[in-house]
Amino acid sequence: MATMTIAKALNAGLRRALEADPKVVLAGEDIGKLGGVFRVTEGLQKDFGEHRVIDSPLAESGIIGTAVGMAMRGYRPVCEIQFDGFVYPAYDQIVSQVAKMHFRSRGLLKMPMVIRIPFGGGIGAVEHHSESPEAYFAHTAGLKVVACSNALDAYWMIQQAIASDDPVIFLEPKRRYHEKAEVDDTATPDPLHAARVVQPGSDVTLLAYGPMVKVCLDAATAAAEEGRSLEVIDLRSLSPLDMAVVAQSAQKTGRVITVHEAPVNLGLGSELSARITEQCFYSLEAPVLRVGGFDTPYPPSRLEEDYLPDLDRVLDMVDRSLAY
Amino acid sequence: MSDASGARAEVELVQLLTPEGERVSHPDYTFHGTDADIAGFYRDMVLTRRIDTEATALQRQGELGIWASCLGQEAAQVGSGRAMSDQDFVFPTYREHGVAWCLGVDPVRLLGLFRGVDMGGWDPIATGFALYTIVIGAQTLHATGYAMGLERDGLVGTGDPARDAAVIGYFGDGAISQGDVNEAFVFASSYNAPIVFFCQNNQWAISEPIERQSRIPLYQRAAGFGFPGVRVDGNDVLAVKAVTEEALERARSGNGPTLIEAYTYRMGAHTTSDDPTKYRLADELEHWRLKDPIERVRAYLVRHGAVDDAFFTDLETESDALAAHLRQQCLEMPDPAATEMFDWVYAETTPYLKEQQAAFAAYQASFETESASGTGGH
Ligand SMILES: Cc1ncc(C[n+]2csc(CCOP(=O)(O)OP(=O)(O)O)c2C)c(N)n1
């Protein structure tokens, strides 16, 4: 068992996947010598060579489009998009091609591809470096979308995503890259598409993923001091959603709040709210409430603290939920 | 330089001022200007470098989130910037601080994006300098469309130098790989748009060397799209000026696009977040230091007695004053009010957004009342 950061855990997971299967290839801008701008691929090109760890030209559509062809040759490409805001030049390839190939070929062509995207804000960056594009992808049939929130999951989920025969959008919480946790590389991990109750509670359920899991855990700790018991669920998988875990919690607490950085309008919280309402209507004591980013572009970094949901905004919403 | 594009660089390069500061002639290009003009470019380059060094220092002191340095690229930027007419329009990347200087953009305004208080705080229409573009290559299409607009407005080929207009779109060597850039080439060529594509080949796209983007010299790409390409010594301000002037003139007179590859070098890190020692060798930097774009002009000015000593001392004073101004203005740059972020989402705002803005304002105010009434702050 070793303690490592999320970035290191991803690195270790990628390394293990490269060792386990010669068909696994990594591709992306600056992932070779530099080891990626977040150093997630550090040392991998040195150890596995330029054919397995491919420094790509500066062309996102090219990175994903060529991965489609490689996948058709039986490779398992793991593509790195440098920052969330730079995935859009590849958007057409992802939603029009990657997502639909299995369907169009009636299962003859698989797209065992992982698209890694460091996502979310909170690092004081300039524009296009702090976006939360998950809803665009979760809305597209044929793609699976997951987000890790800690080093242990990062280690296992990346390997599971690579092993999956479906294309997986793999979201990495960039502002948590340097947070540490114990990683047991002999454990049996949860399935990739399972949600997890990370903090049991009885009054209100908080649903989060990626960088917001920590915010919700902090909120739960703060609320406990006031005698309130919050249950925190790390969704882990955004598409498909693990509704069994979500519904069970909703039925227990009767109050649910979704928390994400992405704008609330048509965000993941909207889908969760609709499905919880459909499945658990008679158990609910309050409407499902949503905490999220505002429906504005991600603001200049000096305003990001105002934009991003924090402990206070979550607790404020807990008050509102309990007031029903 | 071992790469294919590098090997022929010296041969194909348009150069009018050697690294030693000697004027040389070229069969196709001539620098039309006086020693006073050259002294002016020298001043522009020195001040550009000073803005750049001061901004880098401000980043190190935590006043800017990040900074993209143009160290080493001053001649490419000043040479092209000074080739423009008032009615021309520029679409920059995020590194064209020297071009901004030439167009009269207040250097203080360049800091906002990097400090995180705005998204680019100058008026693009008034300055002729579009906002910085972070997404690689996107602006080359905007530039092309703007040029197509100029042509439709009858501002190309009128024969009146005060009316004829063109566009310069800047991008880097990495950008040449992007689909957008290649599509910009197609559109510009197909519509014979009055545009100059100005590629600063600074040899690196973060950690990726030019060989990762192209096996042929970049300027040769233009031929495949049906317009001329030229490689100029990007560290030679006279050559850059001459080559850009000619390309702009072609564009303004209705003869369509040109690709200029300014062959230069990024002497600093990609940005202040980057560590170039991970991927490039110190000798390479040394090799390029000898080609410093500012030093060669200084050598020329001194050797030819084109300026007196006072010129240099005055410039130093001016440079210090500029740096002090930049620093002070940076420190005084206020954060915007958070409620303002809702104001600029749409030209015609929506009821839903107004609700969010009001709710957010009330939420913020609740902290003030709470702490004012002493009921526990946050
Ligand atoms: C579409 C897109 N992908 C990735 C990035 C991240 N990125 C920022 S600058 C850069 C390298 C750019 O190199 P080049 O075009 O040569 O210009 P330079 O910065 O060297 O002037 C990269 C990969 C980006 N900004 N946009």
TrEMBL record, chain A:
Classification via PANTHER family: PYRUVATE DEHYDROGENASE E1 COMPONENT BETA SUBUNIT (PTHR43257), PYRUVATE DEHYDROGENASE E1 COMPONENT SUBUNIT BETA (PTHR43257:SF2)
EC number: 1.2.4.1
Regions that span the bilayer: none
Gene3D superfamilies (alphabetical): 3.40.50.920, 3.40.50.970
MF terms in GO: pyruvate dehydrogenase (acetyl-transferring) activity
Classification via InterPro entries: THDP-binding, Transketo_C/PFOR_II, Transketolase-like_Pyr-bd, Transketolase_C
Cofactor(s) this protein cannot do without: thiamine diphosphate
Span of domain Transketolase-like pyrimidine-binding: 4-179
Top enzyme class: oxidoreductase
Protein name: Pyruvate dehydrogenase E1 component beta subunit
Keywords: Oxidoreductase, Pyruvate, Thiamine pyrophosphate
From TrEMBL, chain B:
GO molecular function terms attached to this record: pyruvate dehydrogenase (acetyl-transferring) activity
Pfam family, one: E1_dh
Segments forming a coiled coil: none
Keyword Oxidoreductase included in the entry's annotation: yes
Dehydrogenase E1 component domain mapped to chain residues: 43-323
Membrane spanning stretches: none
Cofactor(s) annotated in UniProt: thiamine diphosphate
Record InterPro entries: Alpha-ketoacid_DH_E1_comp, DH_E1, PdhA/BkdA, THDP-binding
Record key words, sorted: Oxidoreductase, Pyruvate, Thiamine pyrophosphate
EC number(s) reported in the record: 1.2.4.1
Taxonomy, superkingdom: Bacteria
The protein, known as: Pyruvate dehydrogenase E1 component alpha subunit
